[in-house]
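Help!! Second protein's tokens look totally different from the first
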Amino acid sequence: MAESGKGAIPALAGFPAPNSEAIKGWQEFLKEGNQFLATANNAYIQRKEAFTTAVLYNLVAMAIEKLIMALLMKNGKLPYNHTMHDLVEAIDEFLPGELAGLGGELKAWDGFQDICDIESYSITPPTMGQIGGMLKLALEVQSRIMISVADC
């Protein structure tokens, strides 16, 4: 039941009152995001042949998705969807400033894989140089998120 009184957020009919309690499982998302990023970074540094740019892109994107989801879940929030646009917009809406200066670059990643429409999907693998830039950006996102979840 929603609290009553000054400053309380009333519940909407049929819906629980909004809250900011952590969503169960956020730690697992954080762990998996860190693992995906470590795998991608190590494979990139070692230039392992099996790790094509398409594979590296997907590993880095999964890392970012998991890390952002962990931060949102830790704060009791969820995005509307899981594209980079949606993830960045959720952070901007619920936790303004967390990704300040990084959102535009992250949103650009959606251009490499547009797979939402099964009839008109497109995949454009990035270059190895672009992967290096993505990893640098991902490591910055990881750093910010690790600081944020520690502060919560």
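Here's the second one for comparison:
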Amino acid sequence: MDNIKSNGYGSFVQKIVVRVDSEHVETFSDAFGAKPFRTLPDHSDFIVQTSATKRGDDETVMYDIDYRLPTLPAFKGWKVLWDESVF
């Protein structure tokens, strides 16, 4: 796992790996302006960047991602792969 880096403005740059169910890939891609780096028949994996004011702030990461997906039910159709993420 990579070390988390400060962005120099009191927060940290994060690399979050998110697994998205196939039926929601287009919605996720549009919301984050990202393309999947890994695709399988039932899901695709994306890397998204968020920022936080403290290391290991998983709650803020979850809510930030969910907030950007207003057309999906809350916290449905995706999950963070924490062991592949740097936060």
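Reply: Different proteins will give different token patterns, so don't panic. The mean pLDDT is 85.
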